[in-house]
Every structure is written in structure tokens, then in C-alpha cells.
């Protein structure tokens, strides 16, 4: 049988051998040469009747995508689960409102993040990312699209895991640790609620992800992100975060309201159409990762996305909520049958995530 290791446009890659798992994201994941791509996306946007605003970075952009907003406080849980299913099938992205993350906590989180990234490089590098994948990553050290012609993405970031963290000095950052730990636990709880809706949307028990152990010491990482405002001439066409899909179950994203995030709903369509994901006050952005795409046999989309430079500094914070590393991700029975057999072999979550991460930092 030909297994697909990385999904592409929800079709299996025929005759792909298992060793391909060790390769970085293949080049068809959003890697058209930048000029050609700009022309193509402009043409597609024009054809679709979208306006083409020219950003300070002189990048042409398509229109905005109209993603659904799921109310997490809705008493009609069935309707919320149905809305989640529709969003995951059609877009792989949606917003959640009434999520319960306090505005004051978000304000404190962004203030701490700004203060950390505003330090001189020396202070940040003292907490450089370690082998446990915690800490600071400078600009250019990470390349989310392996096919990008640039050395690396423009962003800098800081990873905070469930434990074993590296913290800035308490003297300089007295409330940093408490703020980060509170944000970690708060968004983890929101993520668990979203996963319970996702389980219901797949006609599984609401507690499914708990029951199979995926949420027993899950691999949950908060990542603070900072994108520069001004970019050097040599970085013209480079991305804040180059095209990628997220690796795990779900991602919850808070932004400071600055635009830049774009999604491409049809990975293999040419020309690719990139659409802006506008900020909506009071909401978090949620997207599906590759492991959930595998679990659902590509019923749910792990959608390609990127962050373009918009000539303005940008801060965002992601929570990557991934399963316990020992969980084996195997196609749900409800998502396959004889006519639609599993497209991926079962895989241990930790093995999959480790390979994807190591490809990102080569
Ligand atoms: O900053 C953003 O808006 C997106 C970040 C992202 O896609 C990621 O870190 O995986
Ligand atoms: Fe992402």
C-alpha cells in the first residue's frame, strides 16, 4: 500500500515510501518563487474580485477570508460542535469567542513579551532554546518552509513548555514566570474545551481525548512571537513565518491586532491563493494541526499558513496543544472505510513531532 506521510491537498501521495517521513516539508507546500507567486496571487485575487492593497512591504495581498466564530459559551453544545466540524472541514481555521481568557491576562502577557524581546540580543541569547525545546530562538534560526530561498524566517520566539522551563531573571522580570504559567494553564483549559467540541463533532465521546490519554501530560507549548517592523533590503520577499502547517492537534493564537497572518486553503492549487486572516477583538484564532488531520484521514484540514511582513512590528502568542508523546495516532474508525482507507500509517505522536521539529531547525 502507498502511504502518505505528509498530507497534501487531502490526497494520498501514491507509492510514497515510509522513509519519506524523515524528509522536511516537501516543496509543493507553498514554495513558488516569490515574484512568480506574487504575480499569481495578484492575478487570482483580481480574478476573484478582491481589492489588492499594496502594503508598506510592497507585497500584494488577496482579500480577507471570512472564518466562522464559534461561541464557547453557547448553551447549545451540539450546534457549537456542528459549527466546529464545518469550520475544520472547510477551512481548518476558525475563531473562538467567549473563551474565558481574561483581557487583563492577555494585556499582561503581551507587555511581558514586548519587554523580553526589547532587550539587547545578549540578554535574549542567555536563554537560547535548549535541547528540551524551551527558550529563545533568534531571527533566521528557524525556517518553517524548508523550500524558502532565505536563510530563515524573520521572527524571533520564545518557547515555554509544561515544565523544565528557562525563565528570565526574577530581578529583571518579576512577574514573567507567573504570567506565563497562568497563560499556559488557562489556554490549555480552553484548548481542552475545544477538543471536546472536536470530539463531539466527530461523533466521539466528549471526553475522547482525555480517555485515550492524549491529554494526560499533553505536549503543550506556549510560543511568544515577535515579528520586526522594518526589514533589510536583503530580506525583501522574506516572511515573518514562512508557509507551513502546524504539526500537532490544535493551535490557539492570540495576536496584538497587527495584520500579517494569511492562509492558503488549497495547497496544491495553482496559482495559490493566500487570504488574510483579520483580527477580531475578543477572539482567539484556532487552527487544526497535522496530527488531527491524520487522525481524521484528512477530513479536517491542517491548513497552510504564513505571516507576511506588513511594515509594522507584530507580536503574537501561540499555544500548541499536542497529544501526550506516547499516544499512537491512528485513523478514527468513523473517518475510513473500504472505499476510503487510512491514508497514513499509525504513528507515535512524539516520534512525529520530533521529526517535524528537527526538520524546522536544520
Ligand atoms: O504569528 C502568527 O500569527 C502565526 C504563528 C504561527 O503560525 C506559528 O507559530 O506556527
Ligand atoms: Fe503556525
Automatic annotation (TrEMBL):
What InterPro entries does the record point to?
DIOX_N, IPNS-like_FE2OG_OXY, IPNS-like_sf, Oxoglu/Fe-dep_dioxygenase_dom
Q: What is this protein called?
A: Fe2OG dioxygenase domain-containing protein
Pfam families in alphabetical order: 2OG-FeII_Oxy, DIOX_N
Taking the record's annotation, the residue ranges forming a coiled coil are none
Q: Which GO terms describe its molecular function?
A: dioxygenase activity; metal ion binding
What does the UniProt keyword field contain? Answer: Iron, Metal-binding, Oxidoreductase
* Fe2OG dioxygenase domain: residues covered: 218-323
Source organism superkingdom:
Eukaryota
Give the originating organism.
Answer: Eleusine coracana subsp. coracana
Which protein family is named in the record? Answer: Belongs to the iron/ascorbate-dependent oxidoreductase family.
Amino acid at each position: 500500500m502507498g502511504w502518505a506521510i505528509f498530507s497534501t491537498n487531502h490526497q494520498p501521495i501514491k507509492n510514497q515510501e515510509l522513509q519519506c517521513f524523515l524528509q522536511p516539508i516537501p516543496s509543493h507546500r507553498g514554495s513558488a518563487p516569490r515574484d512568480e507567486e506574487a504575480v499569481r496571487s495578484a492575478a487570482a485575487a483580481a480574478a476573484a474580485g478582491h481589492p489588492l492593497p499594496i502594503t508598506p512591504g510592497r507585497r500584494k495581498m488577496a482579500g480577507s477570508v471570512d472564518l466562522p466564530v464559534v461561541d464557547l459559551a453557547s448553551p447549545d453544545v451540539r450546534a457549537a460542535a456542528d459549527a466546529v466540524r464545518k469550520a475544520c472541514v472547510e477551512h481548518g481555521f476558525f475563531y473562538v469567542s467567549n473563551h474565558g481568557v481574561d483581557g487583563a491576562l492577555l494585556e499582561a502577557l503581551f507587555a511581558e513579551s514586548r519587554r523580553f524581546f526589547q532587550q539587547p540580543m545578549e540578554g535574549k541569547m542567555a536563554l537560547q532554546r535548549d535541547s528540551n525545546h524551551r527558550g529563545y530562538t533568534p531571527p533566521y534560526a528557524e525556517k518553517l518552509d524548508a523550500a524558502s530561498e532565505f536563510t530563515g524566517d524573520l521572527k524571533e520566539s520564545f518557547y515555554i513548555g509544561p515544565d523544565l522551563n528557562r525563565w528570565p531573571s526574577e530581578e529583571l522580570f518579576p512577574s514573567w514566570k507567573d504570567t506565563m504559567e497562568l497563560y499556559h494553564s488557562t489556554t490549555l483549559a480552553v484548548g481542552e474545551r475545544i477538543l471536546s467540541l472536536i470530539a463531539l463533532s466527530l461523533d466521539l465521546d466528549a471526553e475522547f481525548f482525555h480517555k485515550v490519554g492524549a491529554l494526560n501530560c499533553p505536549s503543550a507549548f506556549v510560543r511568544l512571537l515577535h515579528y520586526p517592523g522594518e526589514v533589510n533590503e536583503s530580506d525583501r520577499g522574506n516572511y515573518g513565518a514562512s508557509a507551513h502547517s502546524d504539526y500537532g492537534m490544535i493551535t490557539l493564537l492570540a495576536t496584538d491586532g497587527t495584520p500579517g497572518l494569511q492562509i492558503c486553503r488549497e495547497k496544491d492549487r495553482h496559482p495559490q491563493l493566500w487570504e488574510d486572516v483579520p483580527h477580531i477583538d475578543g477572539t482567539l484564532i484556532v487552527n487544526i494541526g497535522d496530527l488531527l488531520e491524520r487522525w481524521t484521514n484528512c477530513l479536517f484540514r491542517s491548513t497552510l499558513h504564513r505571516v507576511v511582513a506588513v511594515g509594522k512590528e507584530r507580536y503574537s502568542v501561540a499555544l500548541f496543544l499536542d497529544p501526550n508523546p506516547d499516544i499512537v495516532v491512528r485513523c478514527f474508525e468513523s473517518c475510513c472505510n473500504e472505499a476510503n482507507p487510512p491514508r497514513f500509517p499509525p504513528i507515535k505522536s512524539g516520534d512525529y513531532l520530533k521529526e517535524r521539529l528537527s526538520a524546522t531547525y536544520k
